[in-house]
Amino acid sequence: MIFMDHYAQASCTAGRAAFITGQYPIRVGLSTVGLAGAPQGMQKEDPTIAELLKPHGYVTGQFGKNHLGDRDEHLPTAHGFDEFFGILYHLNAGQYSEQYDYPKDPEVAKAFAWRGVIHSKADGKGGQIIADKGAFGSERQRTLDDEFMVESKRFIRDAVTAGSPFFVWHNTTRMHYQTHLPSAYDGVTGYGLYADGVKQMDDHVGELLDLLEELGVADNTMVMFSTDNGAASNSWPDGGNQPFRGEKGVGGYEGGFRVPCVVSWPGRIQEGVATGEFMAMEDWMPTILSALGEDDLKEALLEGKTIGNTTYKVHLDGYDQTDVLTGSGKSKRMDFYYFTETTLHGLRYGDWKFLFKKQDKWFNGVQENLNTPLITNLKLDPFERFHEARGFDEWQENRSWTLAPATAQINKFMKSLQEFPPRIKSLDFDLDAMVADASSAQAR
């Protein structure tokens, strides 16, 4: 099944947090990319998919890029994963030290040090065994995904041999800026660096699918392929091709949030179909757990759900989308909130979209406050191209009635943020300012 209306987040950390926690990144304090050694990262109060799968007997592994905090207490093996082998940042962080103007003073460099490849294991007693596997500079980046592939395949083989159900979160570094390819892929497509890198990633996905077939578990395994954020047009032609307005890290435009998503589970999920149903990364946690009989996960976590010695009490922002996957019903999602870092840029409610701020560029971009929300019907204008059309102002004025239900929805969400506030308060997080911005049109 291919999703044509699937949302991630505007940046990598946020998109990954949305998937693994089922909560909006603003709620778990991971709406922005953290710096080396920063306190922002996965917190023990927020359950991950891995932690929720453990009572069902799953072995859990994460391999590749993590980007959910770099302190030991943030590592995947402190949050339900049995094993992790990968990196903790964006890919190009590994080559910062190769720059000619990087600090040469070892004491200064140490104070802002980025960790290398980490191999960690949960010790089964609440602790971790952590090993540093060295830096990941530009030369190692050529074959870094090969290393991750070896570890993922080993983990899956071991799980199947042991007769254990498994959850593997395999995160390639393709296609992240900057792209450094092994010689075997240089020029392989004839369409440039980015296409060559996509070919390598495609081959790796094929290896994993072939392994499932080889081990005889393909028909009993859900496979989901997607990405954490929209295209980074600023790095074009090393990426960035897409039809949507905006890009990674930018405001509330679709280009920062809309992502491809493909999911397969023979006999359980419709095959060979495309769906236009509305879905987001936050939906995967309750959907996956529903397949294991936990139909009331959202309600259970609101009341307080105990796993082992920990009781989790959180507000899931995801919805169980089993009906969409099986073709038996429509999406349960009606709303989506466009946060860039900690700024609320917009709301989608059904097919209607409301932008409170505009920003067309990521790096060095300027946020523009709007006197009234910019209204878009995404079925009429999915690429947000017609805001400057001659008849747009009159069309928008005639749809001002949509602002009332939009404001009600915003207030409902903000109330939930007051009841379940951000786990870590970002420096520029201001709930009152968000409410004021979102409600300004109603006041006027």
Explained architecture:
There is one protein chain. With 444 residues, the chain is an alpha/beta fold. The chain has two domains: 2-326, Alkaline Phosphatase, subunit A; 335-443, Arylsulfatase, C-terminal domain. Helix content is 29%, strand content 18%. It has 13 helices and 17 strands. The protein has a five-stranded mixed β-sheet with strand order 6-5-4-3-7, covered by helices on one side. It has a four-stranded mixed β-sheet with strand order 8-9-1-10, with no helix packed on it. It starts with a strand and ends with a helix. The mean pLDDT is 93.
List keywords for this structure.
alpha/beta; Alkaline Phosphatase, subunit A; four-stranded mixed β-sheet; 2 domains; 13 helices; Arylsulfatase, C-terminal domain
Beta-strand residue percentage: 15-25%
Global shape: globular
- Domain unit count: 2
Q: Rg, please?
A: 22 Å
User: Based on the structure, what is the oligomeric state of the protein chains?
Assistant: single chain
Helix content: 25-40%
Provide the residue-averaged pLDDT: 93
- Superfamily (CATH H level) name of the largest domain: Alkaline Phosphatase, subunit A
Q: Class by helix and strand content?
A: alpha/beta
How does CATH name the architecture of the largest domain?
3-Layer(aba) Sandwich
Unreliable spans are none
